[in-house]
Design a protein that fits this description.
Layout: E1 8-12, H1 19-31, E2 36-39, H2 48-58, E3 63-70, H3 76-89, E4 94-99, H4 103-108, H5 116-131, E5 136-139, E6 144-148, E7 161-165, H6 169-178, E8 181-184, H7 190-200, E9 207-216, H8 220-227, H9 240-243, H10 249-257, H11 262-268, H12 271-277, E10 279-281, H13 283-295, E11 300-305, H14 310-317, H15 344-351
Parallel strand pairs: 1-2, 1-11, 2-3, 3-4, 4-7, 7-8, 8-9, 9-10, 9-11
Antiparallel strand pairs: 5-6
């Protein structure tokens, strides 16, 4: 297991970012002082391992997380080969999350198991054993390995953390049993983080990574308005675990029921709710939001930029980082275009649900 990093602030690499902007985005994030860049793997977009390798090779310091790899997409032994290779080449800079994947995506490729919880438990347990170099024998319901082991030449000196990207109570409990940490999709409030940790109930060290829609500006109203489109899905049933711990959960459900579309729902969200559900507002307010998440047990916050210019949005998001290198320049400015969230469907989409 890698040494436990301190409280970290990273950024999400949008799943639909033009290919020629991927590496400049990652380099700019590193120059601005972000601790991590997280990539997503959503069906029909880009592969997580390939993106992570490119970002790692083009940067010097920043950690790179894959959030997440659907368990059904790869045989666990071959997933171990890919992850071990990344960890060998870039020691101490790799984090990997594994999850169910969205049910409809996984069903469309014939890879949705009858028992997603059992599959995830078996998969993460075997993956961690392989990365530790153990001679691994598993005759489970889904994972079958007959004395499989990584060659000593392929073992990383620093074994990367394997996290579980999950959201519901049963899956969170599985994460607490077998994973090094948990990735929570947005929105993550302090209430949801504390509730999730209660379900995780890990015996020892366990990281909690929180994805958050993020919009920071000196104009609070503009920042909140830009964050709204990234929250349009939170009234749907799959997001119930995120919303249930909040004091306004019933009112939010009523608002969604009374809205003709997700877009209308997002537009009607009260500003105070948006501020609770996203890292949004002035720099001071956003830093306070991060402090609240840390106090609730979040170890890593991953900010998802909003607007049509994600590279430019990094500039304003960096104002929440105490150690940001504000003297670095890139020739880009914050976005002033019409707000829309880039890539957040990919964040929540790949996490999946507890339902079989």
């Amino acid at each position: 297991m890698a040494d436990a990093p301190g409280p970290a602030v990273g950024v999400l690499l949008p799943r639909d970012l033009p290919a020629d902007q991927i590496l400049p985005y990652a380099r700019r994030a590193e120059a601005l002082g972000f601790d991590a860049v997280w990539v997503v793997e959503d069906l029909g977009f880009r592969g997580g391992v390939a993106q992570a390798a490119a970002v790692l090779a083009s940067t010097d310091r920043v950690r790179v997380g894959i959030g997440l790899l659907p368990a059904g997409a790869r045989n666990v032994a071959f997933a171990a080969l890919e992850i071990a290779s990344l960890a060998q080449l870039f020691p101490g800079r790799v984090d990997v999350a594994v999850g169910h994947g969205m049910p409809h995506w996984m069903r469309s490729v014939g890879q949705w198991p009858r028992s997603p919880l059992t599959f995830l438990h078996e998969y993460v347990d075997a993956l961690r054993a392989l990365l530790r170099g153990e001679l691994t024998r598993r005759h489970g319901q889904y994972v079958r390995l007959d004395d499989v082991r990584l060659d000593p030449s392929a073992l990383p000196d620093v074994v990367p953390d394997i996290l579980a990207g999950v959201r519901g109570p049963k899956s969170l409990a599985v994460s607490g049993e077998v994973a090094d940490g948990t990735v929570l999709a947005e929105p993550v409030s302090p209430e949801y983080a504390r509730t999730a940790l209660g379900h995780i109930a890990a015996d020892g060290r366990h990281r909690l990574v929180a994805y958050s829609v993020a919009s920071v500006a000196s104009d609070r109203a503009a920042a909140l308005a830009a964050a709204r489109p990234g929250l349009e899905w939170i009234g749907e049933p799959d997001w119930h675990p995120h919303i249930a711990p909040l004091p306004f959960a019933d009112a939010l459900a009523e608002l969604r029921a009374g809205s003709a579309s997700r877009e209308e729902f997002a537009h009607r969200l009260p500003d105070d709710w948006v501020a609770r559900l996203a890292v949004a507002g002035t720099p001071e307010e956003a830093r306070g939001r991060l402090a609240g998440l840390r106090a609730a047990g979040v170890t890593d916050t991953v900010l998802a930029p909003v607007g049509p210019d994600p590279v430019g949005a990094l500039e304003s998001l960096a104002s929440v980082i105490d150690s940001a290198d504000t003297t670095a320049t890139s020739g880009t400015t914050g976005s002033t275009g019409s707000p829309h969230i880039t890539g957040t469907t990919g964040i929540t989409g790949t996490i999946g649900t507890d339902r079989p």
